[in-house]
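Hey,
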Amino acid sequence: MARRQARETLLRNEQEERLRPERERREREQQAAAKRQAELEREQQLRRERARFETRLLYDRYAVDIKASISRARLDQYLQNELSDQHSAEDVESAAERVQRMILDFFEQPVPALRFETTEELRLFYAEQRQHITNTVEDLETKASLLADLNWEEMQTLREMKLQ
């Protein structure tokens, strides 16, 4: 009886040895598939995050001009409902494009070029714009970004005035 058990154990061990390469191959394939799936999910998540970031960035750029029509709370609602992780990356990117287009649509009407007779007039105008941003924009990063853009615009306008 002991011999029989030993023999059965030996046969089982031999069979396991024969099957081990196949089992290990299947395990490697499963691990590779799991890794590919994790990479795909990570890439999808990065795409969603990029779409949200670009939308926030665009909103922040124009917040002062459009906040009466699209408030920060409204943008956050879009981000939460339409651009959330529960949607596929493709759907989030598509929704982000629609929100970004809506923001940009505010600027489709051509704005008449600003004309200043003197540099003092130009400086007063931009000082008023800076004061408006300082008084109305609460988010510090947005405020800093808008003020930097305004300073650049003022420098460009001043350069153009001097060239004329």
